[in-house]
Amino acid sequence: MHSEYSNSFYMKLIAESGSTRTEWALIEGDQLIQHVFSEGINPFFQNRREISRSIRLGLPEVFFRTKLETVYYYGAGCSSDAKKEILGASLVAQFKTPIQVESDLLGAARGLFKNESGIACILGTGSNSCFYDGQQIVKNVKAGGYILGDEGSGAVLGRLFLADLLKGLVPDELANEFYDKFRISPSDAMEYVYNRPSPNRFLGTIAYFLSDYLQNEYAHDLWTNNLRNFFNRSICQYDYQNYPIRFIGSLAYNNSNLLQEVAQEFGIVIDLVEETSVNGLIKYHSAN
């Protein structure tokens, strides 16, 4: 790793951000120079000042001293021009260089398919999907967020589990394990969801808890039905029988066997599951 980076304008910074974490890759050509993680950023839950503070405190100082050709930022919550402007203003203020802000969905599509066509899917704290023609997104079934949509996501899985827990529908053994590990009461859970910042992150952590209990029939069924809803309500609205389908996201990656099982119910073979899109985006931006 370079101790002091060159003044070359060929350096690029790529960021992929979900609601839970942001992955940053400083590259020169197709070479990764430095790779770091910071907390998640989402303009639906953070204002410009909070985003700027998160970026400044989360990255090494050398990132801000390096002369960059462009910063390519792909983020959750960046589907509208208004939200892109919030991110763009924060990034320009910190890096003082040209900025391109795009949705995390376009980042997933470019990372998974580069310049080829296919159906790109995200399964993490949130969920999303699109048909990508090798250049741009040409169809997107609206994600809807964790209250109105986001089927298959960690936040929705957590919401479904908590709803059952509060009504006494979770098996006692699993309920006790949850309370023991999270060390919260039912009232605390309500507080986290309704009165604390970023409830989607809290709900998403429950999905990781449930991943450890897939041998439990209740947990397995909750997981499986959540994934089926994603296929039924999103993937089946695309021409899924004629194009490859690929997934990105921590939930998809860490539970890829279960994901493949559900896909097979729909006659689908998923040919690639990646944890993040950064490696694919490095290849994409070194060639584009």
Automatic annotation (TrEMBL):
Domain of life from the UniProt record: Bacteria
Cross-referenced InterPro entries: ATPase_NBD (IPR043129), Euk-type_GlcNAc_Kinase (IPR052519)
Organism field: Bacteroides reticulotermitis JCM 10512
Protein name: N-acetylglucosamine kinase
Transmembrane segments: none
